[in-house]
Amino acid sequence: METKLARSIGLQARVLRELAASSFAEQASVLADAQRLVMIGTGSSLHAAQLGAWHLRRRGIDAVAMSSACLARWEPPTRPGDAIVVISHTGQTAYSVRARADALTAGTPLVSITGAGADWPEAIIAGPAEASETYTVSYLASLAVVARLRDGIEAVRGGASIRPASLTLLDAADRVQSAIDAPDVAHIGVPTRAAALVGSGPWSITAAEGALKLREAARVLAEAYDAETLLHGSAAPLTEADTLIALQPAADPDGLIDGLAAAAHAEGVHVVTIEDERPLADPFYAQFSLTVRLQQLAAHFAERRGQNPDDVIVGCWNADSLWNAGKPAVHVS
User: Where is each SIS domain found (predicted)?
Assistant: First the structure.
């Protein structure tokens, strides 16, 4: 029987094409006036904030990313000239709700990115509500919205792109569809103990998103690292019971991913490589199809292990006291 996760994975190319044809000029004008963008989220939304902020910085737009809890509880107040981008698929994530409420109270410029059904009036609806608790389509949809916001910001500031995101997103959608149709992950075996995903630069963020999907969908113990962090002590516990998943080694300008894979193999660790043979030239968009292949790997592992990828938060982990921690007592619309 087809899972909700499988159906959601299959929607992503269509959603990307729809977003490529969308415009968010009003929200982009809010952000264009800011000196710095503070992008926040939780879980997959945090990974979208991290990759989105990296993409914007590469285009000369000052942007930082942090978790919603970090901004709500531990960071100093935002400073004059800041604008906040809240990524929350449901619009109900406790610390995202608090950070948004704080921004509205302080009068800080705000743009939100959510899925259908969230009740935030300022929000951009990035895509359909997730049917599975292993989120997929909302992640790539949020990244696509960030790309289109970048188009809008550059248009307001007078530095429009030579190739706008609206066109590159169509290329990415084609690659995503190819990854949906032929993910090439069925040969990868479930690790006996744990999986360690490693990537360089933006591929390390994709590694983090992939590890989260493996944990959620398949209940596989999975961790993610950038190449430098794995080298500096984190590889020490890896044994023949583990699998190292190397992401796009050719993208690493220093060859460290290949070197780590070779060292792992020599130590008896099972090593697999997941890469696109002809990735898109822009590293930001190159993450899209690779992300889908990791989603497919999570679905494959879930099937192999007899796990339900659609019901993730169960048992004591589903206690209201946990999920409401940090949420403001007063609702702010």
Answer: 27-155
**Would you state the structure tokens that stand for residue 333, as one six-digit string?**
């619309």
- The candidate with the shortest Cα–Cα distance to 60, out of 157, 198, 178, is 157
pLDDT digits (tens, 9 = 90+) for 132-182: 999 999 999 999 999 999 999 999 998 766 678 989 999 999 999 999 999
For residue 221, tell me if it sits in a domain: yes
Q: Which domain holds residue 297?
A: 182-305
Phi and psi at residue 138, in whole multiples of 5°? -65, -30
CA pair distance 83, 110, nearest whole angstrom: 6
Query: Which regions of the chain are under pLDDT 70?
Result: 160-162, 330, 332-333
Task: Say if residues 252 and 167 touch (Cβ distance below 8 Å).
Answer: no
User: From CA 11, how far away is CA 132, in angstroms rounded?
Assistant: 13
**DSSP-assigned letters across all residues of 46-79:** HHHHHHHHHHHHHTT--EEEEEHHIIIIISPPP-
Does residue 314 sit within a domain? no
User: Rounded to whole angstroms, what are the CA distances from 304 to 110, 187, 191?
Assistant: 43, 12, 11
Instruction: Provide the total of helices (H) and of strands (E) in the chain, helices listed first.
Output: 12, 9
CB 140 within 8 A of CB 15: yes
Ramachandran category for residue 184: left, alpha or beta (phi over 0 → left; psi -120 to 50 → alpha): left
- 170, 212: one domain: no
314-329 pLDDT tens trace: 999 999 999 999 999 7
Q: In what order do the strands lie in the sheet with 242-247?
A: 222-226, 194-199, 242-247, 270-274
Give residue 48's Cα distance to chain centre.
4
Based on the domain organization, do 156 and 203 belong to the same domain? no
Facing residues of 224 across strands? 197
125 and 211 inside one domain = no
Task: Give the pLDDT confidence of 102-124 residue by residue, as tens digits.
Answer: 999 999 999 999 999 888 999 99
Report which DSSP code applies to 197: E
Same domain, yes or no: 157 and 26: yes
What is the number of residues in the chain?
Answer: 333
